[in-house]
Automatic annotation (TrEMBL):
Transmembrane segments: none
Pfam families xrefs: Acetyltransf_1 (PF00583)
Identification of the protein by name: N-acetyltransferase
Protein keywords: Acyltransferase, Transferase
Lineage: Bacteria, Bacillati, Actinomycetota, Actinomycetes, Kitasatosporales
Native source species: Streptomyces djakartensis
Domain spans labelled N-acetyltransferase: 17-163
UniProt keyword Transferase, yes or no: yes
């Protein structure tokens, strides 16, 4: 079984489907933890539409799609933040494909994309309940840092120097 990772337009049908799946999962997880309910479908549609991913388009960003045996499996996005930093975002793998090395492959491909954009440092944020994400970033050499944004859902911020 083989993994591939390649750039994909942020607005392709594949990218849009993976974004909706990713957003549904993290939103449901937050609402179930904090309010005992799933995401309201109307809210989901508003948020997905409000964040289409245009900032992940060239020349200042990239959206990468991982495929497992040719089937769309997950995403990772990179966007330049300043002259030297790129932000890692939308790291997601479909649930049945987790634990097979795809997440690390996506993050490493995103690091390569950030270097190609001229970045020397990768930054990211995540939530406390996304323990798997925090473990992945730690395993890949990211260091927890002070906040670099004021996102109301961000609880942990990470950075890594890109060699």
């Amino acid at each position: 079984m083989t993994w591939t990772v390649a750039p994909e337009p942020y607005d392709s049908p594949v990218s849009a489907a993976l974004w909706r799946e990713y957003y549904t999962e993290v939103s449901d997880r937050w609402y179930l933890l904090h309010e005992g309910r799933r995401t309201d479908p109307d809210e989901l549609e508003r948020e997905v539409a409000a964040q289409p991913g245009a900032d992940l388009a060239p020349p200042h960003g990239r959206l990468l799609v991982a495929r497992y045996c040719g089937e769309p499996a997950g995403t990772a996005g990179v966007r330049l933040r300043d002259g030297s930093a790129a932000e890692l975002t939308r790291v997601f793998l479909r649930r049945p494909l987790r634990g097979r090395g795809g997440a690390a492959l996506l993050v490493r491909a995103a690091e390569d994309a950030a270097r190609a954009l001229g970045a020397t440092r990768m930054i990211l944020d995540t939530r406390g309940d996304l323990v798997e994400a925090r473990a992945l970033y730690d395993r890949l050499g990211y260091t927890e840092t002070e906040p670099h944004n004021d996102d109301p859902y961000a609880e942990h911020w990470f950075s890594k120097t890109l060699a």
